[in-house]
Amino acid sequence: MKKAFLTTVIIWASLYVAHAQTYVEASVGTSNQDIGFVNLAVRKQFSEKFRAGLELQTAAVKYRFIGAKVIDEGQSTTLSLPLSVRLYQFNRLRLDFYGRVGLRYQSVAEQFATEKKLSNNTAIGFNAEPGLQVSLALSERLNLQSGVTLPNLFEVRPAFLYENNVTNLFFGLGHQLSPKAIFMFKANAGPAAGASGDSQKFNWGVQAGIRFSLNGSGAAALRLDPTF
Amino acid sequence: MKHTILLFALLTLSLGINAQEATNATEKPRKIGWFLTPEYSSMFLKDHIGNAVGFSMGIKLFNDHLKIGFYNYGRSGPINPHTINTPLPAGMTYKGKSSIDLRADHGAFGLMLAPAWRFSKVEFDIPVYIGSFGAGFYLAGDDRKTPDGRRVSDWENELFEGKDAAFAGMFEVGVRALIPTKINGVQWGVGVHYLTIQDWSTYANPSGDFYKNKFRASFFVNFGSKQR
User: Fold this and answer.
1) Under an 8 A CB cutoff, do A201 and B72 touch?
2) What CATH architecture does domain A21-222 belong to?
């Protein structure tokens, strides 16, 4: 496990020293799961075909789960590694395979955990999320994205359980504000199931933020990544 | 299981598209196309109209006259306020009540086959869905806060004699119109579908007529490879 983790980190670190267009993002949002969240991301456009990144989301919890029991306070933080690979392009329309793996940490106060009879006040989870993204370049300054991802959330501690599988439909809008700054708007929604019906049954979220293109801009910078 | 199948489908689709045309379209005629169709639908169910969200995706063969792929849609409880008042078994109560207002949720997925034709610029297809259907009724709102801190599903199993939800085989056939837009590869459309299920029965709906032999109207955007 440790070797696999280290290998992943080394591979990702080596990718990041490579010369490629870099995007830095900051956004805020809300969802049925969180009162509010902050999302920070660094992404690299290694080639016209391939993009990979590192994303950190930290949230104030509104309605999440530990051991398939509701928590309505506390924090949730997810560190994920998203990537996308172009499959098809014709004129203004492009199709990408999108994938993400992530690690999630959740915590509530010990007193809350005791009152709600939770098996622990912290939890660690894992997300594996394949998907397909369609991007539409409506103009040189405006790009729309849509598609579907399939997040698979597993809680691995305190107990192993298949917390949720989600059919996550998403919409994104990237608008160029200046040569290096892009306004981002993202929304997602979709049915969910898992944990014998005790976890989320539907997910939705919205977020807005800014993407900075550090070394030059281009049409690729307008193409946002799916959100969940 | 559902997402394992969908992951396999995504990879198959990826390989199929790559094999055929991974970059900008050329004048060389393609053999395989693709489609990705996020949709909203209204299900005309017993005593109410249900809201459902989903998608279909796959490949197009034989000059785009046959679509083969996967479908997945769900009528989630949180976006459907309709409740079903359900008496509990004799002598049983929950929080002092002998009957409970339950919400319903549902998910369907499986294989899609759709013969397609184009008349003038409008495309028509006949999507046939063959797959699996899981649906049930669940404690909602404050009733999800169980009196003893146990998981909600434990209570649901006890109250509904283990029949809070069930799986069944499903068959759906429909007809859809796909209307072109100014962007090649993007269509919008509407459809009507007829759903039937086999041997689905739950405590709250023993006859299974909640979903059986019902119509559904779909509204969608279709993304796909360059139109012929």
Assistant:
1) no
2) Beta Barrel (2.40)
- Report the alpha-carbon distance of residue A127 to residue A33 in Å, rounded: 15
Backbone angles phi, psi at A112, to 5 degrees: -60, -45
**Domains plus CATH for chain B?**
33-224 (2.40.160.20)
Residues across chain B: 228
Residue B24 to residue A130, Cβ atoms within 8 A: no
CB contact under 8 A, A132 and B57: yes
- Measured distance CA(B72)–CA(A134) in Å, rounded: 18
Rounded CA-CA distance A222/B112 in Å is: 33
**Which residues of chain B does A134 touch, with a Cβ-Cβ cutoff of 8 Å?**
36, 223
Cα angle B129, B178, B111; round to 5 = 15
CA-based nearest distance A32→chain B, Å? 10
Sequence spans of domains, chain A? 21-222
Quick one: average pLDDT of B199-219? 96
ipTM > 0.85 (yes/no): yes
A136 touches chain B (CB under 8 A): yes
Q: What is the DSSP letter of A226?
A: P
pTM: 0.90
CA distance B156 to B162: 7
Strands A181-193 and A168-178: antiparallel
Residue environment code for B163-197, b if the CB has 16+ CB neighbours within 10 A, otherwise e: bbbbebebebebebebebeeebbbbebebebebeb
Q: What is the pLDDT of residues B37-88, one digit of tens each?
A: 999 999 999 889 999 999 999 999 999 999 999 999 999 999 999 999 999 9
CB A89 to CB B25 under 8 A? yes
Phi/psi at A115 (nearest 5 deg)? -60, -40
Quote the DSSP letter at residue B97: B
